[in-house]
Specification:
With 420 residues, the chain is of the alpha+beta class. Helices cover 39% and strands 22% of the residues. It folds into two domains: 16-168 and 228-317, Bira Bifunctional Protein, Domain 2 (BirA Bifunctional Protein, domain 2), CATH 3.30.930; 325-416, Rossmann fold. The longest helix is centred in the first third of the chain and has 18 residues, at 16-33. The two termini are 46 Å apart. The structure holds adenosine-5'-triphosphate (ATP) and magnesium ion. Adenosine-5'-triphosphate binds at residues 81, 112, 114, 119-121, 124, 126, 257-258, 277, 279-282, 304, 306, 308-309.
């Protein structure tokens, strides 16, 4: 019987993989340029890392994590997001001792047991960015500017940056009490989840997708009315620095994000054409997280870009692999020459293909077309006799003769020289 992939887990096939690599390469280029260094953390972590950081009452921890016991009976989780792991690594390796200020990025798969639909999968990929050790609002503006710059660089046309401030534990406490009183007054209209979570985490009601809850929450008190002076000043400064960098944004006072660790700045980039799953990137400040996970009191801020969602809003262009060559060889001697020349060219990064089975010229030309070869080098018996091979430019419809001894150099010059 045929074995299929697991629901919500997708294969990424060529030529689609080329678009993925383009997105990853642009991200690396831009982030390295902004002083970020790549960090790679494991895909499996102790379950506790996520319940403690993301929060026990969040959707991710309550419903979406792939948690299981391994053969030694340890409770482990396939990471649902990257921030917790990166913070863990930052603390575990005492990276703050060399310099508390650090800029990291990471690219890789995340796992959440959600209902698969457009823009929502069980294995998905994120580009993650984290900055440690800077509490100044300039960095909030810079990371948001980077998301927007990256998105426009890869070709996202219409998207909006929405920002909010969630305050700090100091101002959030009185706000939560106020919100709880409000929700209590509307208890019978709330869904079971919201009612259950209300005592310990009333804020989650903002994140609830149930229509009835959304109607109630539209009337609820908002956190920005409760910000302490430090948080209010920080938020005002973030906005003014966004203006300095000419990044447009909207304030969305009801955006709280689905993770408990955010403090002060929270943001989302929403894009057209994604339907209900409209957030292509999201992030925020997490000034208490390093300490909560056992490290020193060091602030942090970060975001994640969802790569599948990003691909959904990008035009479905086909990215050609760059010019390539097919060597059509007829007869045993020429085939052997083609075989070794192709190996030499491949090592020189010239994308070269041959017909391994030595079929007819017609069959080989068909293979060249399938390969998408811009150039075809023909070595038949005539060419063998004259000591010159024919290099045909399939795009221009021209051809020329090249003497055997200079084949390698001439091909590298023509094929590679023409590449972007
Ligand atoms: P949503 O409200 O869409 O569920 P979220 O709050 O769970 O998003 P985050 O945990 O902040 O999202 O993740 C950041 C980004 O990762 C999202 O903006 C989205 O682009 C992407 N993402 C999150 N969950 C999924 C998923 N199941 N499938 C594909 N992409 C996802
Ligand atoms: Mg979610």
């Amino acid at each position: 019987m045929e074995i299929k992939a697991i629901r919500g887990f997708s294969d990424i096939l060529p030529p689609e993989t080329r678009r993925w690599r383009m997105l990853e390469e642009r991200a690396r280029e831009i982030l390295e340029g902004f002083g970020f260094s790549e960090i790679r953390v494991p895909i499996l972590e102790k379950a506790e890392l996520f319940s403690r950081s993301i929060g026990e009452e969040t959707d991710i921890v309550e419903k979406e994590m792939y948690t299981f016991e391994d053969r030694s009976g340890d409770r482990i989780t396939l990471r649902p997001e990257a921030t917790a792991s990166i913070v863990r690594a930052y603390i575990e390796h005492k990276m703050y001792t060399t310099d508390p200020m650090a800029k990291f990025y990471s690219i890789g798969p995340m796992f959440r047991h959600e209902r698969p639909q457009k823009g929502r999968y069980r294995q998905f990929h994120q580009i993650n960015v984290e900055v440690f050790g800077i509490s100044h609002p300039t960095i909030d503006a810079e990371v948001m500017a980077i998301v927007m710059y990256y998105l426009s660089t890869v070709g996202v046309k219409r998207c909006v940056l929405q920002i909010n401030s969630l305050g700090c534990p100091r101002c959030r406490h009185p706000y939560k009490e106020n919100l709880k009183t409000f929700l209590n007054d509307h208890l019978h209209q709330l869904c079971r989840d919201c009612r259950r979570r209300m005592e310990r985490n009333a804020l989650r009601a903002f994140d609830c997708k149930v229509q009835g809850c959304q109607e109630i929450i539209a009337e609820a008190p908002i956190v920005s009315d409760f910000l302490c002076s430090e948080c209010a000043e920080h938020f005002a400064a973030v906005r003014s620095y966004l203006e300095t960098l000419e990044v447009s944004y909207e304030v969305n006072p009801r955006m709280v994000r689905g993770l408990d660790y955010y403090t002060k700045t929270a943001f989302e980039v929403v894009a057209e054409g994604l339907g209900a799953q409209n957030a292509v990137a999201a992030g925020g400040r997490y000034d208490c997280l390093v300490e909560e996970l056992g490290g020193p009191n060091i602030p942090g801020i970060g975001f994640a870009i969802g790569m599948e969602r990003l691909l959904l809003i990008l035009p479905e262009e086909h990215l050609p692999p760059g010019p390539s060559l097919f060597i059509a060889a007829l007869g045993e001697g020429p085939q052997k020459d083609a075989f070794s020349l192709s190996y030499k060219l491949n090592r020189a990064r010239v994308r070269t293909m041959i017909d391994y089975e030595g079929r007819s010229l017609k069959a080989q030309m068909r293979r060249a077309a399938k390969f998408g070869a811009r150039y075809v080098l023909i070595i038949g018996e005539d060419e063998q006799r004259s000591g010159r091979a024919i290099l045909r430019d399939m795009e221009e419809g021209k051809q020329e003769q090249i003497p055997f001894p200079s084949l390698f150099e001439e091909i590298v010059r023509r094929v590679k020289g023409g590449s972007p």
